[in-house]
Amino acid sequence: DKGAYADMTVEKNKDPLLARPVVAWTGDTVTVAVGAELNLITDAYVDAAGEDISDWTGYGATATVKANDDLSFSLRGAYRAADEGDDYSVGPGMQYKNFYAAYLYGQNEDSASDTDTEYNVVYASYKIPAVMGIDNFDMYLGASWGDEKVGDQEATEQYGGRVRFKYYF
Questions:
Q1: What whole-number distance in Å separates Cα of residue 166 and Cα of residue 144?
Q2: pLDDT tens across 19-60, in order?
Q3: Residue 84: helix, strand or coil by DSSP?
Q4: Positive or negative torsion for Cα 61, 41, 107, 85
Q5: Nearest Cα to 33, choosing from 41, 21, 46?
Q6: How many other C-beta atoms lie within 10 A of the C-beta of residue 9?
Q7: One-character DSSP codes across 60-82
Q8: Cα–Cα distance between 11 and 87 in angstroms, integer?
Q9: Is the pLDDT of residue 2 over 60?
Q10: Is-contact 163 140, C-beta < 8 A?
Q11: CA separation for the pair 119, 134 (Å, rounded)
Q12: Distances from the Cα of 26 to the Cαs of 31, 36, 63, 74, 99, in angstroms?
């Protein structure tokens, strides 16, 4: 499998094996979670020159404050350290009943070209619970807008939409 990542040709050499440990604490009104992502397989992905680009470690954290039964606020962030560059993102979110909206700011630092990419994303979703009368089967309708700026280039806009179905066992 070949693809592109951060203006670099990437080839899947082996199946990656990711470890994603998470520790969470939930109180009456506050929930906090921190986690990590580690790729345990070397040479899972290689660049055009055959060099291993599978060595990365990612970290993430989120905190949610429940204002009342219908309204909650969250803040989250993520950081990934890799040989080809570091990435981070941070942003707030808000949920009111079945409606969720959030903003995300991020930056990717490419160590090979010293070209940074900045992006902004605003997205929203609406949960339709109990699809077809099934209590643990929900549908989410979502939409997003974002812009991405690579180095000194003009920002490009992106729009998106999706429908997700979740079944809880």
A1: 19
A2: 999 999 999 999 999 999 988 887 777 777 777 777 889 999
A3: coil
A4: positive
A5: 21
A6: 12
A7: EEEEEEE-SSSEEEEEEEEEEEE
A8: 20
A9: no
A10: yes
A11: 38
A12: 4, 19, 10, 13, 22
Question: Nearest CA to 8 among 111, 124, 157?
Answer: 111
Q: Cβ neighbours of residue 41 under 8 Å, at least 6 residues apart?
A: 14, 15, 16, 17, 54
- Answer whether residue 88 shows pLDDT above 60: yes
**φ, ψ dihedrals at 74, nearest 5°:** -135, 160
Residue type, 91: G
How many beta carbons lie within 10 A of that of residue 32, not counting itself?
14
DSSP assignment, residue 29?
S
The stretches of the chain forming alpha helices (DSSP H) are none
Rounded distance between C-alpha atoms, residue 136 and residue 150, angstroms: 42
CB atoms within 10 A of CB 123: 19
